[in-house]
Amino acid sequence: MTSHDTSIDAQPRIVRYGELKPCKTAFIDAHTPGSDQKENFTIIGGGVSESPDQHVHIRDTPGFNIGAAGQPPKCRNSLHDHNTAEAFFVLKGRWRFFWGRWGDAGEVVLNEGDIFNIPTGMFRGFENIGTDYGMIMAFLGGDDAGGGVLWAPQVIEEAAAHGLILGENGVLYDSKKGETLPHNVSPMPLMSEEELAKRAEPTTAQVVPHYVARYLDLMALSDRQPAKVIGADAILRDRPGFEADFLSRGSLAPEPYRCPQPEVLLPVKGHWRLGWNGQETVLAPGDTCLVPAGVARSLAPSMTGEASLYRVRRTDDPAGKTMPLA
What we know:
By secondary structure, this protein is mainly β. The protein has helices at residues 153-161, 193-197, 204-211, 215-221; strands spanning 13-15, 39-44, 56-58, 64-71, 76-82, 86-92, 95-99, 106-110, 115-118, 124-128, 134-141, 149-151, 164-166, 172-174, 212-213, 227-231, 236-237, 242-248, 263-269, 272-276, 279-283, 288-291, 297-301, 308-314.
């Protein structure tokens, strides 16, 4: 696991929303019609991008990875799975998540602030069904996000028809750029029928009550103390190697606090004033802030009106696995 600076003089590291650098060729479906306008952002940790063009903002990890996906209306991310945990919250827009071998086993629509802790072991995809450019923020379990993405066979086949080949080394080769597979690298094999049969096909009723939390419910629960969202004793009971809680204006203690491990702050609504060691800055929705362990920090909304954020910390659980489907 990556070592962490526990000095009380350490500075929080902030990636501003306006400074995010997208990659438009991060995954195998980058040329596939309907998916060819999406943008991938790798904010903390290497993530699971398959492209050498992906920019990584902060390489050191706090026990998990943070990324994001930005998509215009009607753009979708193709069916895939991960070896590690994956959770999303909606920063902007309205999104439909769907899952199953063909994407028709179940679905849920999420609005701004809603969070979905997606079980491992099932194919999932998502699309922006809003009217404007939308963005979702992602948590991936573990310092190493699991060695990449597992694609549904039809995704690999369709991508090849549009010039993108995924090597068994996890690297994309783009024929539109004149690239070919190296002589010692074979194409990524399609999943066997035996492997496909192991993928879960849960219904909407089996998934949503246990893996989705709604923003308005979290706002109500956080009126006096942070709402525990993902964790062993949280609303979404899980041990994916990290825990997440939700803060609003009413759930903050007035005194500075310390945390024995790094934490990541992700504003959803409003502006938040972060103070440490006599210094101060303001965090806005879409910003990502990694606060080192041991630093005394204060956190409060910087103006009137609605204010909310997610706070994520690593745990000592085996990194990156969600609990089995109920």
